[in-house]
Write a structure and sequence with these properties.
alpha/beta; Enolase-like, domain 1; TIM Barrel; 7-stranded parallel beta sheet; 12 helices; globular; binds 2-succinylbenzoate; binds magnesium ion
Length: 380
């Protein structure tokens, strides 16, 4: 493998408006700032990553603003002008900064793209992916009424999505799921609570068992793996963890405790592709299926998600819907498209998509180039 040395990183912060508001138990997304990270190596190859953050720290503790700060003051100074032998090494280079996984992931994934391009192979191949196409699901925000949700599900089923994920919260749960199951008794259906419940709701959550859900995602606190283990013993529906898993170590402990039977891997939340692969492998070796979650990404993050999902143990359809479900016009060319619930794994080198520079310019609200390791802080 040809090594990589990054000579410049450009932080392109864009402001993007979703095609429709997206509501979860912790709030509604309409617009978001995303920092697109362009890492350029000595030979002039550009690799791309993105901060899968939002503007507010309501999903986890990071925001787009904090991610840009971490990148500028700590993470980029650590990796710039260093010879990197393998992209798996980047994760370990960045552990001197505690947490801030999404910020780390933005630069780490950009470097994976550089490596793939420099060595002339698709990113999916570089990470060891074997699938040539992936099955896709759709995550659906909380709707005003159960009837609205049933209508939406009908549209998405017709489009061919292979899994339907419904956001739930106290007051918008049992009657919504009941309405969907009445109309669609057999579709692959799951619920995502984004930490909206506690163990006091155990009797309430048990009622979900009658709806034959594939899983319930992150019902309890964002930082919990103990109570989830208690809950999993009490309910039949498999528990899937999202917010609680930030690392391979978290995943190992959750599996050991029996906190979940499925893990949602998000590249940003676990600090990059390297850690995503390690969690995938751990789960595979323990007979635990995984799937790839989404964070309303631009095409860049979407391309990374597709590559990751080409690994063999991603046996459950993910949340990586086509570009048109998020943006009027995506920033990559071609956009991500889907045919009857299937997305082709791209075969071009690197992430396999070009960034639309003209579109990027239009959407950019802040741009900064970093070419030196200088920073006000000592970097260990
Ligand atoms: O919990 O999976 C989640 C979006 C933003 C923050 C958290 C989550 C989500 C989604 C959307 O469910 C997934 C997507 O379509 O990108
Ligand atoms: Mg989730």
């Amino acid at each position: 493998m040809k090594p990589v040395k990054i000579k410049e990183v450009i932080l392109h912060t864009v402001k993007m408006k979703l095609v429709a508001p997206f509501t979860t138990s912790f709030g509604t997304f309409e617009e978001k700032h995303i920092c697109l990270v362009e890492a350029i190596d000595e030979s002039g190859i550009s690799g791309w990553g993105e901060t899968t953050t939002s503007d507010e720290p309501y999903y986890n503790e990071e925001t787009t603003h904090t991610a840009v700060y971490m990148l500028k003051d700590f993470l980029i100074p650590k990796i710039i002008h260093k010879t990197i032998e393998h992209p798996l090494d980047v994760h370990d280079m960045l552990t001197f900064v505690r947490r801030n996984q999404i910020a780390k992931s933005a630069i780490e994934t950009a470097i994976w793209d550089v490596f793939a391009k420099k060595n002339n192979m698709p990113l999916s191949e570089l990470i060891g992916g074997t699938k040539t196409e992936i099955e896709v699901g759709k995550s659906i925000g909380i709707q005003a009424t159960p009837e609205k949700l049933v209508e939406k599900i009908g549209e998405y089923v017709d489009e061919g999505f292979r899994k339907l994920k419904v956001k739930i919260a106290p007051g918008a749960d049992l009657d919504y799921i009941e309405a969907v199951r009445k109309e669609f008794p057999d579709i692959p259906l799951m619920a995502d609570a984004n930490s909206a419940y506690t163990l006091n709701d155990i009797e309430h959550l048990k009622k979900l068992d009658q709806y034959n859900l594939m899983m319930i995602e992150q019902p309890l606190a964002h930082d919990d793996i103990i109570d989830h283990a208690t809950l999993q013993k009490e309910i039949q529906t498999p528990v899937c963890l999202d917010e609680s898993i930030h690392s391979l170590e978290d995943a190992r402990k959750a599996l050991q405790l029996g906190s979940c039977r499925i893990i949602n891997i998000k590249i940003g939340r676990v600090g990059g592709l390297g850690e995503s692969i390690r969690i995938h492998d751990l789960c595979r070796d323990n007979g635990v299926p995984v799937w790839c979650g989404g964070m309303l990404e631009t095409g860049i993050g979407r391309a990374h998600n597709i590559a990751l999902t080409s690994l063999s143990n991603f046996t459950i359809p993910g949340d990586t819907a086509p570009s048109s479900h998020y943006w009027d016009e995506d920033i990559i060319q071609p956009e991500v498209t889907m045919d009857h619930g299937i997305i082709q794994v791209h075969t071009g080198s690197g992430i396999g998509f070009e960034v639309n520079r003209e579109k990027l310019e239009q959407l950019t609200v802040e741009k900064e180039s970093i070419t030196t390791a200088e920073t006000p802080h000592p970097i260990p």
